[in-house]
């Protein structure tokens, strides 16, 4: 009998809301957070739209002087961490701090700082580079600052695996609790890279949507007119806790995390194989870890980037794993509303997966007007589904052929 791990806190900062309640309400309602980029002049860029976090004010969470020094991805993480601890009701003390850790996923880190500092180096010389340049840009500054802020003294590190970073972070945090090293972990993903270089780079890969004249319709997973993903930003965090530890303090339990799976495509730098073998293996590993039969899974929170190859491959992988049962799965694509949060995608989508089980609501996949011929499953188009779920599987896949899957279960004693 291994330890049981439950979710006792949730928080989110996304393109559709700066807290959990607002984000979830808009996700269920099918509200898009995609719009014109406001951070920089997009005149020369092929893509001029993104899922920006709107009207975020760090000052309620971080002192103004410190906030000016930190990157957005770290500020989002610190704000979400404070909200997730408040949501969980966990009190962090000197006695329990060594048994509470911080483990976040982040794909790219401080790209904005790199761009701005490089311009300063070229135009003004090396003496103009800030002493905070290196500390601010490194991706592990997010969990580091969260740990400093919350005074947690357990494991403190970051997982970086492209768009699977957040889910790998949660899965690794889950493993830390299972192994008995800690009793609770603040975990999830954070990212903010809506910058000129990032947009130009993904455009060079032909990965981004260029539906600039209709932003809210641009992210359209599984639709035949999809033309690429829309970049987003934000943070999604969970407080994972060992069951008996949670029960001893009377914690409210959203759901249980029962399985983690990971795999490699071993195929290509950026493209998944069309047979979905690596994706399938990740899902199979998560279910095997949990000891759950495929017929027991009710819903899939799909990676579903809105790129032609990814959506097709994920559909093939789902059929490969679930066979005939794939037709019974209620699949959702959160990115149709938030865009692709890159390293934070798994964090936010894990949060929404937990909320799906807690509330019995599968969010819709918006903009799915004419399904692609090779995407023929139930993707919960346009309207949320209210139905009690027992198991929700959440997927994240990334460049480098890296795959991760988490299996959540409706909590029962």
- How many structural domains? 2
How much β-strand is present in the residues?
Answer: 15-25%
- CATH class category label of the largest domain: Alpha Beta
The percent range for helix content is 25-40%
CATH architecture of the largest domain: 3-Layer(aba) Sandwich
**Class computed from helices, strands and strand pairing:** alpha/beta
**Which blocks of ≥5 consecutive residues have pLDDT under 50?**
none
Rg from Cα = 20 Å
Alpha plus pi helix count: 13
Tell me the distance between the termini.
15 Å
Average of the residue pLDDT scores:
97
**What spatial order of strands do you see in the largest sheet?**
5-4-6-7-1-8-14-13-9-10
Choose one word for the global shape: globular
- Got a strand count? 14
Write the CATH homologous superfamily of the largest domain: Thiolase/Chalcone synthase
Order of helices and strands: EHEEHHEHHHEHEHEHEHEHEHHEEEE
Looking at the structure, the CATH topology of the largest domain is: Peroxisomal Thiolase, Chain A, domain 1
The profile of the biggest β sheet is: 10 strands, mixed
């Amino acid at each position: 009998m291994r330890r049981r791990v439950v979710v006792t806190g949730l928080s989110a900062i996304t393109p559709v809301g700066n807290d959990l309640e607002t984000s979830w309400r808009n996700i269920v309602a099918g509200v898009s957070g995609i719009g014109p980029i406001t951070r920089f002049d997009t005149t020369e860029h092929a893509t001029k739209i993104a899922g920006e976090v709107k009207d975020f004010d760090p000052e309620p969470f971080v002192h103004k002087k410190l906030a000016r020094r930190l990157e957005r991805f770290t500020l989002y993480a610190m704000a979400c961490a404070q909200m997730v601890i408040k949501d969980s009701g966990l009190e962090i003390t000197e006695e329990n701090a060594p048994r509470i850790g911080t483990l976040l996923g982040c794909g790219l880190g401080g790209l904005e700082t790199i761009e701005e500092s490089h311009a300063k180096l070229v135009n003004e010389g090396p003496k103009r580079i800030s002493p905070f340049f290196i500390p601010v840009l490194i991706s592990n500054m997010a969990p580091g600052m969260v740990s400093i802020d919350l005074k947690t003294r357990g494991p403190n590190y970051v997982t970086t695996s492209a768009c699977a970073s957040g889910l790998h972070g949660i899965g690794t945090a889950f493993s830390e609790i299972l192994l008995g090293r800690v009793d609770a972990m603040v975990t999830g993903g954070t990212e903010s890279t809506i910058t000129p270089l990032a947009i130009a780079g993904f455009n060079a890969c032909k990965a981004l949507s260029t539906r600039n004249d209709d932003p809210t319709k641009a992210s359209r997973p599984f639709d035949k007119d999809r033309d690429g993903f829309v970049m987003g930003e934000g943070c999604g965090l969970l407080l994972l806790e060992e069951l008996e530890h949670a029960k001893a303090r009377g914690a409210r339990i959203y759901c249980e995390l029962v399985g983690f799976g990971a795999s490699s495509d071993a195929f290509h730098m950026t493209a998944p194989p069309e047979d979905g073998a690596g994706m399938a293996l990740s899902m199979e590993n998560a279910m095997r870890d949990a000891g759950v039969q495929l017929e027991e899974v009710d819903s899939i929170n799909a990676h579903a980037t809105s790129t032609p190859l990814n959506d097709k491959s994920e559909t093939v992988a789902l059929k490969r794993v679930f066979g005939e049962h794939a037709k019974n799965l209620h699949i959702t694509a959160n990115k149709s509303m938030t865009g692709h949060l890159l390293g934070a995608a798994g964090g936010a989508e894990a949060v929404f997966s937990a909320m799906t089980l807690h509330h019995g609501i599968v969010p819709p996949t918006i903009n799915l007007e004419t399904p692609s011929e090779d995407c023929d499953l139930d993707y919960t188009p346009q309207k949320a589904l209210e139905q009690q779920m027992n198991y929700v599987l959440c997927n994240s896949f990334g460049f480098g052929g890296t795959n991760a899957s988490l299996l959540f279960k409706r909590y029962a004693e």
